[in-house]
Write a structure and sequence with these properties.
Ferrdict_sens_TM, about 325 residues, 8 helices, 3 domains, 3-stranded mixed beta sheet, 13-stranded mixed beta sheet, flat, FecR_C, Jelly Rolls, transmembrane helix, alpha+beta, about 30% strand, Phage tail protein beta-alpha-beta fold
């Protein structure tokens, strides 16, 4: 295994070694070398009994470089855009490392837990073959082996599930609602301090809230659960808007600036403050894919007639109305 590849995985590489590692992902002529290095690392990971290195700090360093940049033009903007795309690519091996680390440390226990930091996401397969995409700032717990009565997973945050069909019911448990399915594809959003949402793409699911309220969803429907009284409201939606994040896209359709900012904070792991409540209800329609946070904020300025600035001391973006 090449030294710079090994050092990156150990979170111990120099700036020059990091650049060499990045080139494996961004230069087409390095594909064969990348494939060979990943295969070698895979074999070593399976063979060794030591813990897989925790790369959380490395990921945060990448996103710190992306998000701590002050809004500028020219070379700085190009660098931010470049780092954003590099981070998106690098998270593939990082996600694998997170999964292995958690898997190895949970041997002999009943549950396994996969967590994703902010500004990242991961994909993995459950013991029954069901696929899971876990969004930023989310956690999913599940048994190493499902029993015959039910396939239960516990979610905090947001996840998209493509459930393997089986006679054994599949259940997603969150703080406010339980989702019961047999075989389907759906998105569950249940972050703290938000009303949970369940969006069904195909199949059929049954919801049970903490108050005992029940609701069956059909494809193309979304249920919003009121966190205060556990009531369930159903509406027809474009499901792509709520599942596009698994394809590295954020889609906004006539959404308030307040809701947009909330999603951007998780997506980019950066603090954004709305300086004037008057502009919180301004509506945005846009699709974001690989843009840096600077490019997104520039878009908000143009489309919503706003302005923004970067607070060095607080390390946050402040959005203000144009007066």
């Amino acid at each position: 295994m090449k030294e710079y590849y090994r050092k990156y995985l150990e979170n111990n590489c120099t700036e020059e070694e990091f650049q060499q590692f990045v080139e494996l992902f961004v230069k087409p002529d390095k594909k064969l070398v990348l494939d060979a290095q990943m295969k070698e690392h895979w074999k070593l990971t399976k063979a060794q009994e030591t813990e897989t290195p925790d790369l959380t700090d490395t990921l945060h360093k990448i996103h710190y470089e992306i998000n701590s940049q002050e809004p500028r033009t020219g070379k700085t903007r190009k660098l931010v855009t470049y780092l954003t795309r590099v981070a998106a690519v690098l998270f593939i091996p990082l996600a694998i490392a997170f999964f292995f680390t958690l898997d190895k440390t949970e041997i002999g226990t009943e549950l396994q837990t996969v967590s994703t930091p902010l500004a990242s996401k991961t994909y993995f397969v459950l013991p029954d073959g069901s696929e899971v995409w876990l969004n930023s700032g989310s956690t999913l717990s599940y048994p190493k082996k499902f029993d015959r009565k039910k396939r239960l997973v516990k979610l905090t945050g947001e996840a998209y599930f493509d459930v393997q069909k089986s006679k054994t019911p599949f259940e997603v448990e969150t703080e406010n609602v339980q989702v019961h399915v047999l075989g389907t594809a759906f998105n569950v959003m249940s972050y703290a301090d938000t009303n949970p949402e369940v969006t069904l793409e195909r199949g059929k699911v049954q919801l049970l809230s903490n108050s005992g309220a029940q609701q069956i969803l059909e494809p193309g429907e979304q249920a919003v659960i009121n966190s205060a009284n556990s009531t369930i409201q159903v509406q027809k939606v474009d499901t792509e808007i709520y599942s596009s994040w698994i394809d590295n896209k954020l889609i906004f359709r006539d959404e308030s600036l307040k809701d947009v900012v909330e999603r951007l904070e998780r997506w980019y792991n950066i603090s954004i403050e709305i300086d004037d409540e008057y502009i919180s209800d301004k509506k945005l329609t846009a699709t974001i894919e690989y843009e840096s946070i600077t490019e997104v904020m520039d878009l908000l300025e143009i489309t919503l007639s706003l302005k923004y600035e970067y607070d060095k001391n607080e390390r946050k973006l402040i959005v203000k109305p144009i007066k």
